[in-house]
Amino acid sequence: MVINPISPTVDFDQDGVQHGFLKLPYSHDQSAWGSIMIPITVVKNGTGPTAVLTGANHGDEYEGPIALYDLAAKIDPVDVSGRIIIVPAFNYPAFLSGTRTSPIDGGNLNRIFPGRPDGTVTQKIADFFQYQILSRADYVLDIHSGGRTLEFIPFAACHVLPDKRQEKRCVEAMRAFNAPYSLMLLEIDSVGMYDSAAEELGRVFVSTELGGGGSASATTIKIAKKGIENFLKHAGILAGDPLIEPTVNLDMPDGRCYVSCETPGLIEYTVELGEEVEEGQVVAVVHEVTRTGRPPALYRAGISGIFTGRHYPGMINMGDIVAVIAVPV
Amino acid sequence: MVINPISPTVDFDQDGVQHGFLKLPYSHDQSAWGSIMIPITVVKNGTGPTAVLTGANHGDEYEGPIALYDLAAKIDPVDVSGRIIIVPAFNYPAFLSGTRTSPIDGGNLNRIFPGRPDGTVTQKIADFFQYQILSRADYVLDIHSGGRTLEFIPFAACHVLPDKRQEKRCVEAMRAFNAPYSLMLLEIDSVGMYDSAAEELGRVFVSTELGGGGSASATTIKIAKKGIENFLKHAGILAGDPLIEPTVNLDMPDGRCYVSCETPGLIEYTVELGEEVEEGQVVAVVHEVTRTGRPPALYRAGISGIFTGRHYPGMINMGDIVAVIAVPV
Amino acid sequence: MVINPISPTVDFDQDGVQHGFLKLPYSHDQSAWGSIMIPITVVKNGTGPTAVLTGANHGDEYEGPIALYDLAAKIDPVDVSGRIIIVPAFNYPAFLSGTRTSPIDGGNLNRIFPGRPDGTVTQKIADFFQYQILSRADYVLDIHSGGRTLEFIPFAACHVLPDKRQEKRCVEAMRAFNAPYSLMLLEIDSVGMYDSAAEELGRVFVSTELGGGGSASATTIKIAKKGIENFLKHAGILAGDPLIEPTVNLDMPDGRCYVSCETPGLIEYTVELGEEVEEGQVVAVVHEVTRTGRPPALYRAGISGIFTGRHYPGMINMGDIVAVIAVPV
Amino acid sequence: MVINPISPTVDFDQDGVQHGFLKLPYSHDQSAWGSIMIPITVVKNGTGPTAVLTGANHGDEYEGPIALYDLAAKIDPVDVSGRIIIVPAFNYPAFLSGTRTSPIDGGNLNRIFPGRPDGTVTQKIADFFQYQILSRADYVLDIHSGGRTLEFIPFAACHVLPDKRQEKRCVEAMRAFNAPYSLMLLEIDSVGMYDSAAEELGRVFVSTELGGGGSASATTIKIAKKGIENFLKHAGILAGDPLIEPTVNLDMPDGRCYVSCETPGLIEYTVELGEEVEEGQVVAVVHEVTRTGRPPALYRAGISGIFTGRHYPGMINMGDIVAVIAVPV
Amino acid sequence: MVINPISPTVDFDQDGVQHGFLKLPYSHDQSAWGSIMIPITVVKNGTGPTAVLTGANHGDEYEGPIALYDLAAKIDPVDVSGRIIIVPAFNYPAFLSGTRTSPIDGGNLNRIFPGRPDGTVTQKIADFFQYQILSRADYVLDIHSGGRTLEFIPFAACHVLPDKRQEKRCVEAMRAFNAPYSLMLLEIDSVGMYDSAAEELGRVFVSTELGGGGSASATTIKIAKKGIENFLKHAGILAGDPLIEPTVNLDMPDGRCYVSCETPGLIEYTVELGEEVEEGQVVAVVHEVTRTGRPPALYRAGISGIFTGRHYPGMINMGDIVAVIAVPV
Amino acid sequence: MVINPISPTVDFDQDGVQHGFLKLPYSHDQSAWGSIMIPITVVKNGTGPTAVLTGANHGDEYEGPIALYDLAAKIDPVDVSGRIIIVPAFNYPAFLSGTRTSPIDGGNLNRIFPGRPDGTVTQKIADFFQYQILSRADYVLDIHSGGRTLEFIPFAACHVLPDKRQEKRCVEAMRAFNAPYSLMLLEIDSVGMYDSAAEELGRVFVSTELGGGGSASATTIKIAKKGIENFLKHAGILAGDPLIEPTVNLDMPDGRCYVSCETPGLIEYTVELGEEVEEGQVVAVVHEVTRTGRPPALYRAGISGIFTGRHYPGMINMGDIVAVIAVPV
Question: Are A189 and A245 part of one and the same domain?
């Protein structure tokens, strides 16, 4: 049996706050005996549930890392009942390079679970979380945003699950996170996701999309910070009640929610994220760039609802997502 | 004397609308006898002033190209008195690669004027505009945004000029553009700018910054479209009066307007663009990413005013701009 | 069980002509929710056999894509009895980059069958053809050329097969294709080939090599077009008889047919493709390039026959093929 | 005054055959005190004219280097009256990388004359030939082909010159070279060419285009070898009369000889190089590749004549040359 | 069953000396039908044991290749009793690029055993040695150095093995090699190593680390040459007794032997390799480079012993090894 | 007149110690309004001479930066009479990338003086030192090593100068530095060197080569630290007398001191740096690597003397330096 070579420099069972690393040996041309040092903070105080908080599952999504580096620096074990495991930059090599996937092996951490202990760097990270971290967790929060190529209205999400009691606990945790929007997802293709790995182990799991474009704003950072604090209060790890403000509940009934691109070019959006759109309404046009004087291609909403997500860069390619539309419930 | 090898496929003196190219011979490894084909539209109707409209002077700024490809496709010569020269993607190789500078020669088109007819690709473009385009212009509008690494509140700008009559005409044109913000610039280092080239020739010149992040929104695109139409009405090339809405007039008195970074890491903004800030107020903090548990570095406003510009990507390096603050007048 | 995520936008069972895509979801740094859109045309009219026609199995081979984009644009369902599935650019990412293998995963599509539904992009394409396309096929034609690094005399080919009735049907189809040369292949290493995948399913399979060098000429394009029309007539999908002209039948008895390089340098061929060579005759010499004044290395034919294939680029490396010689039968 | 740092390891004034180098100091990251060693052969016997023979002025053109490495290895000074300076790989770094231009500085050696002694690597080579090699020459032959991106019928060429006596001497040398085609060129843009540098110094200068595609065939290599021998006989450096076979004399009267591309895609030629074409005849079509079912763009001859040159790779871009047509005289 | 496609051009059972290749077919974009040609020498004389000698298992380690190319050029079969198989550049693609791992597939040959016959290039090499080379071996010597990123005092090494008789034979062979230092290794993670593959087959196996930094000195080359000759004499393949000089026997009891880096920057060593250090003694400091005026981070020995290995480049990253300390026994 | 845009954040005329930056604005694709921040320390106390100390003129040379970051962190203004300007990483972008030249513009800082204020990044650094730093200097010390591709015995050096009084002052300063070797240089090509820039301004200038290979050892770091302290004592800026140990005085009379490579391959040195060699003695051999069994090429000393410098990497190319030999005086 192959042992995962990642060794933590923190003791998960020790009370107090520890700042350390998940040390992942990585022999390569620039360092024959090198290691990747993934920062981790463990805060523990007595008994109680364990929450695992992660950011930068995709390396170009910033609300999670910002809120979690901040939390790790400020958290006082006195305020904690139970344990918080904070990994602000889950796919750390991707985070350092500011890219969705790992520059080392191209690994998309959220499509690679359960990983392999003798696999690539990204597979080793997945395997370690599958067998060493999720096994210690009761509550799991993975903070995503749109990254450099997508932008979303800020929402928390959970999944339709076969175990309706688990689903209910996840929905309650999503509501406790209390983002401006809350989305119920029926994933078509959940193979390899961290979400599925956590859910299959029976954990209370919440995910988010809080913005995008490879940046973070004061507003979306505040949503992340409030959501984390609410989530920990909901889990009973921090004292007090979550601060609850109005949220819009959304659903994505079927494939009409997605508009995709069949004409590469320069994309001009005609509506803003968060606006209501009618089925058939033009949400974007795409201009051919090799010459002037051509009429642009029109892209229309396939369903009425809220303009929830969009392509971010100025140029768009064949097959890219133009628009995501969700339906208020 | 060296002749600029760029040949236009349009006739600048012909009435009607022509869609063509500035054809720039470029011999390289992928095409021994290749050319760069920069799209151009010329619309002319009788006599009257000439306006030159450009986008993508930097290749990752999108409001200009979107509004100008759109204008080129829709403009009817019947509505025109005089001439409009539209070049939606000024530094076309940079625009195609979605980068600020040209992937061919690294050229920053806005620092390379007056260019050289026998220079690099970017220098040839500059030389052609210096001697063939600006010479035909009365009104010049160059639409910028922040690009992939900066983000701004949407403003039109003009410069303090030695010729106060010319300055006044530029200010009037900037006001006609009527962006939400209007900024009077005293450039410290204007060497090589297209702006300076146009102004030194006595043209009425207006520039803008309309957003950033390497994307464009429905809102900023509308600002660009309205501004262009207003600008052409102000020049008398389109009929009617500019549509004028309230604008905030801004000034940048001195170096205190700029906050720059001396600690690389993950940047967390604490205020939104457009908010008022007080001198000494923290506008952003930077988290070290190699380890958790460290207090972040604080960045404070050097002057009271409006938070006008920021670094866009989630990570920031030594020497990058953290914040630009402008003062309402 | 893992489902192949490729979804066709065409209905294989609908009469008439449909131009659409095989849509392959591909999440990467440049597009988090992107897709690869492989063009496909399905032409169907009533009942009858199904032919699958592919080009650009290797991305730098052009006679196939040219003839098939042309066919897809011109074909009238009225002329068809049965069904034609046309995929002009089989390994579409490789085709777009003009390289033999995929720039995404380095995949050589013709060595990767039967693929994997949860594998790399190239593995997913192979899996989809294995289970969704070949299952619908009666006749399969895969048009190859030499690509950027090899050049061949134009030939159609089929394989020695264990099932002699199937082999006979393949030979008849190869003869119907009627290239200037017809070659009977005993593949040493057929693992992972599309050829083998089709043959093992009992399909009538024909392959070709029609030229090379990463280009196509009017002559080789005509061979491809005539061959495709002949192949479809032979299958009974188009009406009429194949147009048959003289062909030279060739065989490759053993390893003496291959001459390979053991001296890197500049290669000088002394015979033209299609010429007869005698065993022991010098077919090429290789000049060392680091200095002048050295005698070149000589490469001799290992068998008498027709000079059938050669290295294309001006420089040659250790281990590259110098010459392929086939024996007329 | 700056001295060119290139030092030859051969003595240009010594009788006999010497194989050596032009040693060009080049300090870079892979070798702090490195040099580029350009192979050179000098053959001298008594008094008489000097011929300078070069290949690989562009690094992906192979008939010249093949014929000249071969000549350098075989030449016997006893057969020579005067001097031959042989540089088979003129832009040696480009030749080693198989690219038109230098991988070191992007330099196109044939557009950079007279170079600079303190410039880039390519500029230093040009300066050395301008002041150290051409100054020693009477006859200059520079053997080109189409390279990886162009293909030509095999022709020798010379230029219309202001000095008609010099022009006549060049034409006689071109005819002595005796390629299958002979072309009289009126260059529009001869700035920076080696051709112009030699002609301005009053040398007898002949250039060629002998094929292309980044390869060489037995046929085109024979044309080069015969042409070089003829050229040296014509100069009186080798004994005997040139071997003269029929040639087709061609002219290129004006811009109608060039057809250029305005639709990127997959190019399908409908005529072969060397065929006669009529004005208005379709010589090629370009297929859009992002989808099937579209009619291709048609490209027509602008003048009646011989199809003389074409784009070589299977894919073509905006602004690339589609066809060159020359007119028999 | 899949057959390894590597074919040797030498006959392992033929007496005399043969210089040839392990020919590994490798189809790629630069050569559709190319091969990697790994140089190999087989020297055989009558019956007797077989020694397999390899260098460049990692491509940036040079004492092995130097000593083995030298041996292959000089060895006289008359002096041999048995057989020597010499592969100077084991991971040949890595060796050609001067990198630890293969530029083709990133493969670390010493972590990939037993390989796969249908795997990547590096996996194919491993599989061939596993089943074709080690099966023929009695004595196996694999000569390593530190490579570009590590530097060691020169030592031979063998492993603690479960079969104590085999271990004893390995220790005797290590002592016969007689490097200045001899190290007994208890590998923590020996999965995929060539060492383990040889040992599990019961071979007498010796490894070394003879220097590093991506270079070799006259001194370390002499150690390699003497060690190889001694090893072959010890095996009885060459006549005579090994030349034995004093060696220092070393042990590495536990993890305290390793000091690793948690502060990226510029590394300043305070002791030389081979010096004795005391537990707690500063062996290196690391300077932050983004600013001056900061105190450096201190790195201390975790155990008393000999300073055995260090990081080589001037800059060091998080997780790199700072120091290896071994304990004299 | 163009102003150099570099702005120092330190005041050169202020007493005490200041740690700051030379801030060089650099607009590029990763940061539109970015700057390069070159660390600098200024230490001043009263009146007295000014010494300028630099390291990493080439970015892969480490003794200088190590000793100077260390000095900057420890220096106490109380110990200073006059002023010390410390720039540990002169070509800072090259230093950060660990390469000889700048990754931004390929600039070799030591061949680019006097630079240009409106040039590339490296040219701007040179211009700033030419006009802002050297103008303030009395004593200038620039600490070099061999870098990644060369290795030297540790020496200090100065040049033969036209002004013999200045030369004498430089020689005295070199002797004060007191490296194990002291070398008197007659540079052939000193164009563009920092050395020449300083000397032409009449400064007392000393340079060094202290090791190489892209690393630094405890021994060579000690030589640098002692040399700097001695140099500052000699200048009267630090109190006390230089610590003087024996040094070997060397001379390099002519081109026979250099042995250069004409056979690419694997280099085997037969003597160690610092050993005495006789004219004609083999100092290295080069093995061809494409095959085994070939005799290596031999390289011999052209003059008797001390083996002073060598190529560092294991592989060597055409034109690289094999050996530098200096003659004791």
Answer: yes
At F289, which CATH number?
Answer: 2.40.50.100
- HSE (side-chain half, CA atoms, 13 Å) at B160: 9
Q: To the nearest 10°, the Cα dihedral for F287, F288, F293, F298?
A: -40
Region D206-231: mean pLDDT is 98
Residues E105-141 have pLDDT tens digits of 999 999 999 999 999 999 999 999 999 999 999 999 9
Residues B234 and B276 in one domain: no
* 3-class DSSP assignment, residue E128: helix
Q: Which of E206, E231, E250 is where one domain is finished?
A: E250
- Per the structure, the count of domains in chain C is 2
Do A116 and A138 fall within a single domain? yes
Q: Are E72 and E200 in the same domain?
A: yes
Instruction: Put residue A322 in one of left, alpha, beta given phi > 0 → left and psi -120 to 50 → alpha.
Output: alpha
Chain A and chain B share a number of CB contacts under 8 A equal to: 143
Instruction: State the smallest CA–CA distance between residue E227 and chain F in angstroms.
Output: 17
> Cβ C32–A149 below 8 Å, yes or no?
yes
Query: Do E289 and E212 reside in the same domain of the chain?
Result: no
Half-sphere exposure of B115 (CA within 13 A, CB side): 27
CB A150 within 8 A of CB A311: yes
- Averaged confidence pLDDT in chain B: 96
Alpha-carbon distances of F84 from F75, F133, F221, F228, F253, rounded to whole Å? 10, 11, 20, 11, 35
* Token pair listed for B105: 């020669």
Overall pTM surpassing 0.90 (yes/no): yes
Residues B204, B272 within the same domain: no
pLDDT beyond 90 at E11: yes
Mean pLDDT of the region A280-299: 98
**Quick one: three-class SS letters along E84-120?**
EEEECCCCHHHHHHCCCCCCCCCCCHHHCCCCCCCCC
Distance from CA of D254 to the nearest CA of B (A): 16
User: CATH number of the domain that A215 lies in?
Assistant: 3.40.630.10
The beta-strand segments (E) located in chain F are 7-8, 16-28, 31-45, 50-55, 82-87, 139-144, 150-152, 155-159, 181-185, 204-209, 248-251, 258-260, 265-269, 276-277, 282-287, 297-300, 305-311, 315-316, 321-328
Residues in C closer than 8 angstroms to A58, CB to CB, are 32
Residue F33 has pLDDT above 80, yes or no: yes
Q: Judge if E313 and E210 occupy the same domain.
A: no
Whether residue C273 is found in the same domain as residue C234: no
B89 found inside a domain = yes
Classify burial at D312, counting beta carbons within 10 Å of its beta carbon; exposed 0-12, middle 13-18, buried 19 or more.
buried
Residue A155 domain-assigned?
Answer: yes
State pLDDT tens for residues D232-269.
999 999 999 999 999 999 999 889 999 999 999 999 99
- Tell me, yes or no, whether F1 lies in a domain: no
In what order do the strands lie in the sheet containing D265-269? D297-300, D282-287, D265-269, D315-316
In a domain, D1, yes or no: no
Structural domain boundaries enclosing F184: 7-250
* Confidence class for position E186, pLDDT limits 50, 70, 90: confident
For residue E36, what is the nearest residue in chain F, using CA coordinates?
F290
Helix axes F63-74, F218-234, angle to 10 degrees: 60
Q: How far apart are CA D72 and CA B133, in angstroms?
A: 53
For chains C and F, CB pairs below 8 A equal: 6
F224, F250, F276 - which closes a domain: F250
Q: Is the pLDDT of residue E188 over 80?
A: no
Q: Which residue of D has its CA nearest to F60?
A: D29
The pLDDT, as a whole number, for residue D1 is 64
For tokens 């908080």, name the residue. Answer: A53
Q: Which of A290, A291, A318 sits opposite D290 (nearest CB)?
A: A318
Distance CA B40, CA B19 (A): 6
ipTM over 0.90: yes
